[in-house]
Amino acid sequence: MAPRHSGLQKDVLALYRRALRMVHSKPSAVRENFDLFVRYTFRTRASSVSPRDVAAIEHLLRHGRRQVEIYEDSKVRNCFVSREMMEWGQQHGGRTSRITHPA
Amino acid sequence: MSFLRLAARSLPRSGALLAPRTATAIPQFRGRVFQSAFFSAEAGLSKGDITARVIDVLKGFEKVSPEKLTETSRFSEDLGLDSLDAVEVVMAVEEEFAIEIPDEEADEIKTVQQGTSLRCVTATSNSSYCSAIEYIAKTPEAK
Hints:
Chain A: Keywords: Chaperone, Mitochondrion. The complex is a heterodimer. Chain A is an all-alpha fold.
């Protein structure tokens, strides 16, 4: 059994979950952009700080929460995807297929 | 004599009162029985079915190698997923079964098996996917 997560880890995972929910709320045509943006941002920022640097992680969390709040607005219709993100996305594929069941 | 008349008058009235009550009580009771019967039929999402669907969801992830994937695989140890991936998996399972798993429970899911057993346990507003056990007991909105 993996060790339990700390409070800070839980906060990060909760933010990630919230960000992914935000992605699902976007129209399917642009969802891919948001998805890539969220995954790229989390991955690169997570590897940019040391797991022991609590102050830095807290800063990123605050920053991330504000950003997600802005993106959650339905008026945000699309999201910029840089070339870097696209390259990263090609190396770090997420889900390749989505199963669709008839409702 | 007057008290007799009173008694006679009260009898049919009480009978009239009783009759509709029983009349309405019976269909209500029947309705409930049928409802629960339909409901239990609908709720029967078999364990094998759930497992197959969860595994299908996991197959959709590029990081997961299909040959390692079994019912008992653990996300981090066997499948090489980190905690962020695990969140993605749980979200995908949520999407697949049209449910929403609360954060505390989602954090606890670390194996495929657990994912499926939670599936058995989770009741939703979308009653067609509901199956039994303890989660329902804990969830007042579960129907």
